Structures are given as structure tokens and as C-alpha cells.
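Why do we care about 3D structure at all? Because function follows from shape, and shape follows, mostly, from sequence. That is the central idea of this module. The next example makes it concrete: a single protein chain, its amino acid sequence, and then its structure expressed as C-alpha cells.
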Amino acid sequence: MARSGTLILQVMSLIRAGIASRSLLPGTRLPSIRQQARRLKMSVSTVVQAYERLAAEGLVVSRPGAGFYVSGPVAPLALMKLGPRLDRAVDPLWVSRQSLESDPASLRPGCGWLPTTWMFEDGLRRALRSQARGPLSELTEYSTPLGNPALRQFLVRRMASLRIDASPDQLVLTESGTQAIDLIFRFLLKPGDSVLVDDPCYFNFHALLKAHQVRAIGVPYTAQGPDLQLFEKALQAHSPRLYITNSGIHNPTGATLSPQVAHRLLKLVDRSELVIVEDDIFADFESTHAPRLAALDGLARVIHIGSLSKTVSASVRCGFLAARPDWIDALVDLKIATTFGGGRLAEDLILKTLTDGGYRKHMETVRQRLSVQMEKVACRLQGMGIRPALMPQAGMFLWCRLPEGVDAALLARACLDEGVVLAPGNSFSLSQSSGSFLRFNVAQCADERIFTVLSRALHRSASVPVGHGGS
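And the structure:
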């Protein structure tokens, strides 16, 4: 009887999960009792009891002679219940929460931003004082639909240094780079579409794609860019609508797209209906600019994304997108529908900060500090048996392989218990093939306690048999 009861609960859990993930919408007919029994290799009586209990809970309704149907309104969207259940240590949403919610005293070598003391504090404070003395409208009014014209003009000039040719009317300011991507997803995707992502890639791409209920397809990312042979196979097999990537500094690997791969990639795309979303929020960290797909393509099928949260302020949110002219009106309509008006205060502050005479020199200093830290942290990690997969040309990220047999998720969990937030590889990997990798933010690795905690956790991991307690 106990086994029968357990099997009944299994069937009920299966149906509940389908309803929660919206794969079973209201009005959907459940498989017949005999079909379900054959599919799950259970007895007919077990499925009958499971269906009857679900009916008693009001989740399904029985229609005599027609079967059982899902009832009620559409289930509230719960991202955690979409797709396979992941260990919390590598779940993208959980990893983001750990970085954002951690105690200020905790150490965060796994986060994706600069330490507070590395930001352009003087310029931001000057901008705040100037803003406070300005007209009241600058402090209280909505921004225009496209966003501050002067800031858009400034950003167009910056894009020109990347050889991206665009007019200010092709630029839409957003609340953040993430909002820009969300608008594009709303504009071009429908539930069930396929989207190509790098494997590994920025973990919030996974979460955002889940929210739009589309199918993510991973393409391995190399030191020069995506694996083009596998990229072509994915194009042919899945007819994806979008490909989202970084062209400058890749997150998490720190790799740089090579000119050869960029040209060959666009040739492949020319034979498809694919649109490329180029997320370029780390542009100001580069000393020498890598090729941009938007520059090579002329913004024909590439949409370019940017943000100022990594170098100016994550608190004063401002991002942007640049796209072909005939798409701009529809994207602005979506922006108004979802946020109404942009934040004029944030846009004005960002413009004042970027045009401050000290910003360029500040970023030169940041790039120099990152270069020094990159060498120092890489050397320190190598001494612990943690080896960078490559040495990035710029940026803050080191993508590192752990000693053989060490599970990154278990290591991250052990370090979190001691106040150190790490970013395990599988939180970035759709295929869950990066279980032996960690992403380190070298700018956040100045505190000696990080290496003490990491060394202690590594030592404990070495004494645990491979595979024991893995995620």
C-alpha cells in the first residue's frame, strides 16, 4: 500500500509540474488513463486514483466520456519550475540572489561588477551636485520615448569608435542592458521559439529566456568565438530566431571574438532568418577593441546592446539598444507599454558623468588596475592548482578549471558557508558541462581571506571521493 501511495503521488507531482510550467494550460486534455499508465509503466488503478485526487483538489476536471482536463486559470509564472530542476548552487536565479543579497561584509569574487571603490565616485558626485542645481523638470519629469537626445548623440559617437555606424534615431535608451534585451525578446520571440546561446554564457540570459518560455540551444564557445561547425548544425536543426552573445569581452570566459570567426559567423547567418543580439556592456574595459558584429553587419540583422552600470553606477540604471531604423518605432511602443517613460534623472546624470573631463582618465586607471590584478590573481590561483582556461586581453573575468575531481558547485557551497560568494561553472552552462570551472572577478579578489577560505575548501574537497555528493 505504501508503494502504491508513493506512485500515486508521483503521477500527481508530474501533472502539477506541467501545470506550474505552463506546458499544461487550462483546457488541455490529459493523456487517457490507459495511455498514462502505459507511459509511466504503472497500473491503471494508480493513475485513476491520481487523477481523482487532482480533481478533488480542483486542478483537473473530469468530463464524462471525454477524459480529464486541466482546469482553472493559467498558473502564475514560476521560473524555477521551468526546465530541469537544477541544484540551487548552480541555478542562475539563486546565484544572482547570493551576489545581490549577501551581507556587505561578505566577499564576492563570483559577482560580475567592480568594487564600490573602483567606480567613478568623484564624477558621479559632481554630476549629482550639478543636477540638484538644475531646473525642477530635470528632477521630476519623464524622459522622452527614445531617451535623452544629447546622451543618444554621445553614445552614437562612442559606437563610431567601434566602427558601428548609427544615427541617434536608431538608439533607444532603456533602464538597463537587461531591459534592452527583454524588449528585444518581446519584440521578436514567441513562446516555443528557439534561441542560440553560447555555452557557457552569462547566466541571466538563461533566466530571461525561461521567462519568455522559449527554447535555449547551447553552442560551445571557444577562445576565438562560437564553434562555427556546431553553430551551423544548430542553425540547420533548430531554425532559431535569435542568437545572443558578447562580441567584446565574453562573459564568463573573458575570450575575444576573432575577426575570422566574426566574418564566417555572419556568412552563416546570411543564409538564415536569424537575428543576432550583441550584448556589449564591457566595451569600456577594452584597451584594443575587438570586432563588433554590428559594425560588420551595419545593424541589418544585428542589434547592439550597451549599459553603463559596470563603469558608472549600478544604482543609476541606464542602458541602450541600437537597431535597424524600421524596428525602432515598434521597440519604443513596447518600451512605453512596459515602463511608460524612462528615467530622465538617471539619463541626465549618466550624460553629465560620461562627459566629465575625468571619466576617460578614470577608465584608463581601471584598465591598468585590472591588468595588474589579472596577472596577480591568475598566479595565485595557479599556485592552488586552479588554472585559467585562457588569459583575457582585458576585463575582470578569469574562467578557471579546478583541480581534477573537484566539483565547483560543492566548492561554492562550502565557501558560501564561510562568507565567500563564488560563481560555479554550471550556472553559466546550458549543457551543464562546466562543473569543474569557476568564474573569478579579479577586481573582487583583493582580500586575502578569499584565498584562505578557497584553499581550505579545496583541501576538504580533495579528501572527498569523486562524485560523492555532487550536484
